[in-house]
Please model this.
Amino acid sequence: MKISRTTLIFLLIILISGIFLFKNPVSQSRAKDLPQQPLDTNQHSGDPTDESNSTSPVQSKIPHLRNRMQTANLQIFKETVARQALAFPKDYFLEALDYDKEVALTFDDGPDAIFTPQVLDVLKEYNVQATFFLTGTNCKRYPEIVRRIQAEGHAIGSHSYSHPDLRKLAAVAAYKTEILNTQTILEGLIGYQPSFYRPPYGAVTDEQIIYFAQHDLKTINWSIDSFDWDSKQNSVDEITYRILKYIHEGAIILMHSAGVDRSNTVESLPIIIETLREKGYQFKTIPEMLELPQS
Ligand SMILES: [Zn+2]
Model:
């Protein structure tokens, strides 16, 4: 068979482009332009029926709050916490950054005399250890509940003395009036000063994150908001659905054990615990999951 000159040139072009592509595969050259992991990706945080949830990705995680936000203010909050988590990776946490199938339940605003004990009863029944962020004022009112939290193996962190928006205070003033006194109260009750705290409303300035870290206090926020604090959307079904929808490896889940009626939080707990266990998740305290010292 005789090959024409045109065919020969055509074959040569194919061969040369083949060599070029082999040396510079498209996927590799384009990968540089792609984000490592876009925010709000479904890969780890989306619909729990999405099977990609169970894959083991090799990229490192970008910490972020998973909830889709319904108001502009909440969207700003979501962007702020993501920025702070990236800016202060050793001192400020939204989630654990490895891919272990572990999650941390956290309960704010306690203790109280009614709902915190109910939360503790459920956790005890299921042998789950959680983390409680307690205010100084409530610790003074219900010291026996603080001791019970500790006796039952849960971790304890400060949630400020009087639950203000810390951003309205300078770092030194916030430390003196809201943090240090609560650390002292906690030490009197549990024997040590916790190494981590949660700012009320998750709101804290960069200056405060740095200043508190210099005083051996890590800032802990969350990657999943149960919205159990929002009376417009905190039915048992809504709380449960939201947590299961956004669940991911290393999740820190925000819930509340005091303040107002927390019946729905208490009622949703068994469903959340049972379902997450069925999915293979283990429950850890904040210091266990983030590998922080307790004090
Ligand atoms: Zn709070």
Strands lie at 92-93, 102-110, 131-134, 155-158, 196-197, 218-220, 224-225, 251-256, 282-283.
